[in-house]
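Case study 2.
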Amino acid sequence: MNNDLRIAQAATLEDIKVIAEKAGIDEKYLECYGNDKAKISSGLMKEAAGRKDGKLILVTAITPTKAGEGKSTTTIGLADGLQKIGKNVMACLREPSLGPVFGLKGGATGGGYAQVVPMESINLHFTGDMHAITTANNLIAAMLDNSIYQGNPLNIDPEKVVWKRCMDMNDRTLRDITIGQVKKTNGVERTDHFVITVATEVMAILCLSKDLKDFENRISRCVVAYTYDNKPVTVKDIQAEGAATVVMKEAIKPNLVQTLEHTPVFIHGGPFANIAHGCNSIIATSLALKLADYVVTEAGFGADLGAEKFLDIKCRAANLHPSAVVLVATVRALKMHGGVELDQLTEENVEAMLKGTENLQKHVETIQAFGLPFVIAINKFAKDTKAEVDALLNWCKEHNYPVAEADGWASGGAGMTDLAKMIVEKCEEENHYAPLYDVNDSIEAKVETIARTVYGADGVEFSEEAKAKMEEYKKYGWDKLPVCMAKTQNSLSDDAKLKGRPRNFTVKVRDISISAGAGFVVIYTGNILTMPGLPKVPAAVNMGVDEDGETYGLF
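Prediction:
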């Protein structure tokens, strides 16, 4: 079978105007980028505002291997499967980050015959949204440092600057740097830091804003530094909100593309789920719900990260009520959680796979805690054996968990119709969705609820620094915001080495920070990094362009 890139390059795409018509989008709202992608102008949301919402389906997963377990592939395949059984459907995905594309994990456009296209464009520069976010973030950083240099009228303490510069690439050397060196005209010398673009508050704000005006209001509230007497300084204080909004004027519009089977897809926004909130934009999701009867979306990493944030942060902010959840499980990840080493995951091991189901069961319990119906999707890989898949199917049936095999990678929508039919049935069930915590609870109580209910922890231990900040945040009402947990994706716990279903552990909170514009408090656990690094052999070393101008090595 061809690799993902060759499959995507061989595909015949419909003109994006045809895809728009299929989605019920009038051509007057299209801003085309060539023939295969388009942005959607804000007028459509105003026109569609009075329409009834469709059914919202969330795709999440168990704790993944380093390569991921195929949430995007399942999301795309399920959308194609729903289309295959005659449903009016759209998918909503996050935009890929260049860091993982050139690093280890790869892109985020699905795989095999369950892909969104044009795959190369989406995984690289696309419509420029990532660059706009990077520019807006760094514009604010430049204006902040310029204010300090130009007489410091706001009395900013250079040692208390919290707004970080960014770039959309894995570059560990930029985690801790010194700026303004050598001569005074270079600015005030201080330590600084870079984060990856998808971890910025600008990205979070893009994804949580309802429109451009809401974006401007939110960005104005962002805390960039503190004064010598410890008062917060905002983007509004340095008068950067207008310029940052100008930079984001086009990026705020959702992007329309298609699957290999010509199902309409919105791709917009792309925060990581281990260091940010891990969901595509509210604008794209809300618009899709007005256009389609079924909307399939995904949230990053396992249900302990992306799903928790989708259900506690995004749905709360946008007043969304999900209808059902797809929980992706793979034989290989379950074997890993059963104790098998990564280099032995292709070998049959039913016993280890069944032992690893304790991880799957914990994620099921999390979805049930939110009051939502679900279906387990076994995302099939070529090296899975019949004995392993049958054992997993039997385990699900013994626990009375609805389950379907998902073969979108090899068969596209045709391999997803069983899952599609089951999820349609689940969407008709009454559900009792509710966020896990009340935002008016204390920060400590909210973190404790997530740690105990979602991670299975015995409790939470806060550092003295975190305690001091929590007390300080009460002055500004920030303690009444949702919390966004920065935690490893490799374990249910805050220790990446603990696989399966860890027990008898305490989550350690080392620090917290405020994202006042996004509207949440970020909680840092373990050794989570906001600027990833490249692996010893990055994916980038195998990439290039051949003599015919065709890309190779991109997955």
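The longest helix spans residues 129-149.
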